[in-house]
Write a structure and sequence with these properties.
Helix content: 25-40%
Structural class: alpha+beta
Strand content: 25-35%
Order of helices and strands: EHEEEHEEEHHE
Length: about 170
């Protein structure tokens, strides 16, 4: 059985966001073929793109998985659904849980349901900072830069990110 490494971004801004993220991580760990190898601290983050909503709580996970990218996507979506995420709604709007696959090994994939690496990750401080906390040397397979370089070149005037005092 081939094992893969993937980075996931997790976030929430409805209800108890930290608890939502912790429950999402627990549910993900209960899935066969997924092991969490590392987790970043939680951050409170200003919304991006759709601004008329509460701040988010975000973190990153490094996982080991035997799942294919599409199988992993199905599992992350099932966890989101079980925690009350509704289909549709406002793009980039409020959510009980958001679990995104950011990197899957060094795979590059473009399909209607999944793009790897995540197509907007290099523009998002709330994604880059937590991944840097785990490993700042991870290389973006398309841009050829590590996540620390991507974070350093990001214009973050409207992307406030603050340490969160609580976690799982």
């Amino acid at each position: 059985m081939t094992e893969h490494r993937a980075y996931l971004s997790i976030g929430s801004n409805l209800g108890d966001p930290v608890q939502n993220c912790c429950r999402g991580i627990e549910m993900l760990l209960a899935e066969p073929g997924i092991t969490v190898l590392d987790q970043s601290p939680f951050y409170r983050t200003r919304p991006v793109d759709y601004l008329e909503q509460d701040w988010f709580v975000n973190a990153a996970l490094l996982i080991r998985t035997a799942c294919s990218p599409r199988q992993l996507l199905a599992k992350t979506q099932a966890v989101q659904d079980r925690l009350g995420r509704k289909p549709g709604g406002i793009r980039f709007g409020p959510r009980t849980l958001d679990l995104d696959i950011i990197f899957y090994d060094q795979r590059v994939l473009v399909s209607p349901e999944l793009t790897l690496p995540h197509p907007r990750m290099h523009k998002r401080r709330f994604v880059l900072q937590p991944i840097c906390d785990i490993d700042p040397t991870v290389i973006h397979p398309v841009l050829g830069k590590n996540v620390q370089e991507l974070l350093n070149q990001l214009v973050t005037d409207d992307q406030d990110i603050l340490p969160c005092s609580s976690g799982c």
